[in-house]
Specification:
By secondary structure, this protein is mainly alpha-helical. The protein has one domain. It is built from five helices and no strands. Helix 1 runs antiparallel to helix 2, helix 2 packs antiparallel against helix 3 and helix 3 packs across helix 4.
Amino acid sequence: MPSKSALQVLFVVILISMLIVTTWASAHQSMFAWGGLTARPDRYWTIATLMDAYCGFLTFYVWVLYKETRTLPRVLWFIAIMSFGNMAMSLYVLIQLAKQRSGGTVASLLSARNP
């Protein structure tokens, strides 16, 4: 499990990366002028949006890394989340909800580790 300092480094890197890519995209094009994913001049916000999504996937994966105690599930969930994004993340939460005992709390869902 990552230490507090490792998490601080990870989230500082994510914050700085997002500030850089947002500034870069803003310098090239107004966010309100974005024309979609395929328009050639609009690639700046497409790149920024994809980076934002993957930083979100990585943030969610930190929780999965905490919850899962075995290496194989950690690796498989990382691949699933990075490949399928919110679909895999939703599936993971639904599985965790199904495993939760009747009357379980949100706090126990978030903090209980899987054997």
